[in-house]
Amino acid sequence: MTTTLKDSPAPGWWRTKVMDVFGADLRSLAVFRIVIALLVLADLANRATDLTAHYTDEGVLPRTDLVQEVLSPWSFSLNLMNGQPFFQALLFCVAAVAALGLLVGYRTRLMTVVVWVLLLSIQWRNPLVGGADGPLLRLMLFWGMFLPLGAYWSVDSALRGAAQRLSTRFLSLATLGLFMQIAFVYWFTAALKSGPEWRHDGTALYYALNLDQIATPVGRYLLNFPDLLTVLTFATYGLEALGPFLLFCPFFTGPVRTGAVMAFMSLHFGIWLSMDIGIFPWISAFCMVCFLPTWFWEVPLAKLRTALPGWFDNAALRLQNAASHLVRDRLPPLHLRLAPVTGATVPDPAPGDRIRGRLARIVSLPRTLISGTPPPDELARGRGTPDGDQAGLRTLRSSLLTNLFAFAFLLYVLCWNLSTVSALTMPERLVPVGPFLGLDQYWGMFAPSPSREDGWYVIPGNLRDGQRTDLMSVTRDDYGLHKVSWKKPQDVNATFKNEHWRKYMENLYSQQHADQRLYFGQYICRQWNARHKGAEQLETFKITYMLEMTQPNYRHSTPQKVVLWDHSCF
Fold first, then answer.
1. Which residue ranges make up each domain of the chain?
2. Helices 173-192 and 400-421, interaxial angle, to 10°?
3. How far apart are alpha carbons 558 and 550 in whole angstroms?
4. What's the number of CA atoms in the CB half-sphere (13 Å) around residue 163?
5. What stretch of H or E contains 63?
6. Rounded to whole angstroms, how far apart are CA atoms 414 and 411?
7. Does 331 or 359 have the greater pLDDT score?
8. Mean pLDDT of 338-366
């Protein structure tokens, strides 16, 4: 799957309109690459804090039990090759290095493939700790493999010296696939939200923010404004159902699409403020940058650059100086830098000059990114135009094979999503493609209605000397003695170390994963007794869930003790 460069013919009205609606700006794809790489690094850093607990045979899900009871037989994971902490840490490190390569745009397509494979492997190693953020992140990487994410603002473009010769506009079936994938997230979550709380009563956010496991202080404060919650419920549902159409508006496409992007970002910023659900709001918000049209870069940002020229120039200069120290090389010879001014003929560069020229492009890359000024040797060869004129530039196009693959996968994803909201079923022979490539997806966030079941965990344990301690602290890497209390914690969300542990405990409560309670019990025994000897060794404990049902109209309910598991360590 390669890309080819062709001279762009003068497009007709229809071609321009298709480009506006379904095409992407290469600068937007570059920003998309950068934010996705940063999100991968953040996700890896968060997961790495529970490397032993979640990804090794010493943790809550040994490999043999994972394959037999949880994982699809068609799911592929390199992490299943070895259950030792060192091997898992090695894969995490390789994924992080590849994500850094993706961040700076070095061998971008290769790095995208490596990150996608390793992230998918890590997610499949323990699917019980993942929420909606996992599928969304890997799907963004999947579609990114078919796109020229490194065409702009990357080491690849600096070394190739082609970024300033390319038109900023790009159209392929892969851009359509990426755009539709993001739109599917909203359309199908709206279709799955069929409960009256979303469509008639407007009480969905009331129930969602009453889930103490995820509600933040801001979310709990919003419960004081029931009328506002009703308005926000209908606004959220309306934006999810109708908002994606604005992303494909054929009229006033630039400002309308930019406005829609900002609306979706605002939605997810509000979710982040009111609900602690990991990095899902950040992934959802920042993946929208791929929709930013050429109008965004040429009108609002151009005016901002004109209004604040000193800031852009100073920032670009500081970054260029930092890059210069990092590369530790000089700019090209003086005659190359003066050529645009003097009009002198530029001779063919010697090998040493070519190396210096490449290094100069790397050094000049930050300035190109911020101020829009092409590197010196690009101006010397007449390849760059500071004013952003598209005339005479070449259009980057995907190969036929890339388009065919993108179209096939787009149809597959559409059919998979339709099967989640209708009686349509995927052909049996095609089902394995979903888990094998990570294309399986279900966007039932708070669907059909937010859960009314809430609560908190208490895990009273009995030690050999007769003492009792609450073992819920083990999930937070705290192995001290804690008094057993059945009272509701002041901050239920704080009883979980992070979103991955919260999601794991949520799955543990589900009857679907009741068989995993044994392995969690064994994990607690191993971890506690490895750190305590003699009389403080753990003998027995009970995994208890304090179930609290959310009642309508702010009525309170009495929590009930639900014993999920009774475990003996000996």
1. 3-298+399-437, 300-394, 453-568
2. 10
3. 10
4. 30
5. helix 63-69
6. 5
7. 359
8. 50
